[in-house]
Amino acid sequence: MYLPHLVFEDRAFGALVLPNCRLEALWTGARWIEGPAWFPAGRYLLFSDIPEDRMMRYDDTDGSVSVFRSPSQHSNGNTRDPQGRLVSCHHLGRCVTRTEFDGTVRVIADRFQGRRLNSPNDVVVSSDGAVWFTDPTYGIDMDYEGQRAESEIGASHVYRIDPDSGDVAAVATDFVKPNGLAFSPDESLLYIADTGASHVEGGPRHIRRFRVRGDRLQGGEVFAECSNGFFDGFRCDRLGNLWCSSAEGVHCLNPEGALIGRIMVPEVVANVCFGGPKMNRLFIAGSTTLYATFLNVSGLNVSG
Ligand code: MG
User: Rounded to the nearest whole angstrom, what is the distance from the C-alpha of residue 177 to the centroid of ligand 1?
Assistant: First the structure.
């Protein structure tokens, strides 16, 4: 028998989950959390508590949670680059940073064509070192998550930072509010969420799928619609399934975009991340609480 937090939409979901593995609440006390990123060398998970202007660290060796960085420039999405360095999006600083090995926090993008970015939201790094990030306006729409300001760009794009030149190029300019993003296992596809329904009546609440052609994207068809809330952030497992945030928990989509199962969570989920020594534990950013469960499939050991 499967525990009741696992909801099946397709029998295939059974191969990905563990029937007797419960949903654990690891820590609570946040305003709302985002941006989980796993660091295998140190066996810890970093995540953002956006309104509290801090980053937290879950230590997998003893289960403790402590403040990693405060203030954090209202950090949101975080990831790990191929060298293992922390890459973060910041609402207040309106920038993307990389934390170097000596601890220096270096801004790697804060403008596009001379105008300030809106408020970078989520980020992934491809194996060639290119940094791909989304730039909706949530952090400049309100003081709660950043600081209210006018958009200098006047639109919400997806950008790529070139690993050699450091140049920032717009790679998708037809989004309402681009949000989470993740590569397929072989990096031939880039999935990008649009949460534009937060601002536009009847607007997008879906994930689009692009084909990666070097430094450019092609295609961009709608891959899946969210049936409850938003696909804010998500991650791909090594079989190509997407584990996506939603208002009711985590939705698991197969590589064709079909909803095959759900992990019900007591709070709204903003993002997820694979981690643990075997990369088979799904960490879940659930509003005020960090949750986790073990799965029968592991995540990609890149760009956690
Ligand atoms: Mg997001």
Answer: 10
CATH for 54: 2.120.10.30
The overall pTM is greater than 0.90: yes
Is 50 a member of any domain? Answer: yes
Q: How much distance in Å is there from the Cα of 175 to the middle of ligand 1?
A: 14
What are the b/e assignments for 202-239, b being 16+ CB within 10 Å?
eebbbbbbbebeeeebeebeebbebeebbbbbbbbbee
Q: Say if 236 falls within a structural domain.
A: yes
- Strand-pairing partners, residue 84, are none
Instruction: Quote the ligand 1 centre to 270 CA distance (angstroms).
Output: 7
pLDDT tens column, 245-302: 999 999 999 999 999 999 999 999 999 999 999 999 999 999 999 999 999 999 986 5
DSSP 247-296: SSEEEEE-TTS-EEEEEE-SS---EEEEESTTS-EEEEEETTEEEEEEBS
Please report whether residue 1 resides in a domain. no
Can you say how many angstroms the Cα of residue 166 is from the centroid of all Cα atoms in its chain? 22
**Structural domains of the chain, count:** 1
Q: Retrieve residue 86's tokens.
A: 């922390």
Residue 300 lies in a domain: no
Structural domain span for residue 228: 6-294
Tens of pLDDT, residues 53-95: 999 999 999 999 999 999 999 999 999 999 999 999 999 999 9
CA of 2 to the centre of ligand 1 (A): 30
* Rounded distance from Cα 35 to ligand 1 centre (Å): 7
